Amino acid sequence: MNNQKQQKPTLTGQRFKTRKRDEKERFDPTQFQESIVQGLNQSGTDLEAVAKFLDASGAKLDYRRYAETLFDILVAGGMLAPGGTLSDDMTRTEFCVFTAQEDLETMQAYAQVFNKLIRRYKYLEKGFEEEMKKLLLFLKGFTESERNKLAMLTGILLANGNISALILSSLFNENLVKEGVSAAFAVKLFKAWINERDINVVAGSLRKVGMDNRLMELFPANKRSCEHFSKYFNDAGLTELSDFARNQQSIGARKELQKELQEQMSRGEPIREIIAYIREEIKKTSITEQSMISIIWTCVMSCVEWNKKEELVTEQAIKHLKQYSPLLKAFTSQGLSELTLLHKIQEYCYDNIHFMKAFQKIVVLLYKADVLSEEAILKWYSEAHVAKGKSVFLEQMKKFVEWLKNAEEETESEEEEAD
């Protein structure tokens, strides 16, 4: 047995020396700024050269640590103090976004510089988005020309997908809104964005991050109306944005209306009171009767727990719809509204498999209750039906439609005899 004390293992390795000069350049913010400014001064207005310089410098400069410094210099020419003024004690360059020409073509070229930089160094994406949020909060500290350039650049970057529309939340800052800075900036931004992308693509980007319903916040509380928004952006030549906002408000109003209707039905409010409420809402929101009948049908069918058995659900549906037929009748005064209702019934019965065999019985019930006219049913049958389950539903309706046609012919014959 070995009584000697066992030695503990020790870690050994080679220590690498870092040259002091390289260490300073990589970790000193002052040296970092001087290096970027010097490179931009040497590249001048040649943005291809700027892009190449930034690409190469990422290997020796700490972009990750000094992302904010880097983007401040590229946009404003130097480090920005809180509020948007340039720091006096720092080196600056005259070659940046704020000193460039104020036109779309120049801003598109600058957008490409940022695009190449972020594609090359993916870790800069988050820092760049934070920078854009900050710059938008600093708008009051910039000149009108600088704001215009930044607005165009932001619109192009949004169109290219370099930044998310979430950055627009900075524009809802109370001070910026109050002084009209946000709305004026938004005009230039959306013009550049819509110049690059279709309004539907712009709308999709806004919707994706929940900004589609917040555009009214660009204005003070006392001016947050669809009328003011539409006039402001129409006058600025942005009718597409104006129409989009109007449509969004209409969608929002419909959602609120649907929610209120569902609550009234669940409380068992009298039908006449529900009708009165809906008529008031139509006056206020200008919703068409066709849109309204769609909302009513959805509410009527969602306010009850349906039986899962096919043979019982039809009987349940007939009893339920009989109760609400006066409500449906009140908002099917036009032929187009009747067809809209027929489409909604067809789609509902197709989407809810237990109702597949109930379609014909529902239509007959609503015909007898004077909700649906024979003209609307015949038009639906011959040409105006939708694709969902049409073969099944047309077959279900065949005998009833034949009966309607015969009744119509008999009526015409009786009228001729009377003449």
TrEMBL record:
Span of domain W2: 247-414
BP-aspect Gene Ontology terms: regulation of translational initiation
InterPro entries (alphabetical): ARM-type_fold (IPR016024), eIF5-mimic_regulator (IPR051245), HEAT_5MP1_2 (IPR057397), W2_5MP1/2 (IPR043510), W2_domain (IPR003307)
Region (Disordered), start-end ranges: 1-28
Single GO cellular component term: cytoplasm
The entry's keywords: Activator, Transcription, Transcription regulation, Translation regulation
Residue stretches of biased makeup (Polar residues): 1-15
Keyword Transcription: yes
SUPFAM superfamilies found in the cross-reference section: ARM repeat
Record has Electron transport as a keyword: no
SMART domains: eIF5C
Family: Belongs to the BZW family.
Name of the molecule in the record: W2 domain-containing protein
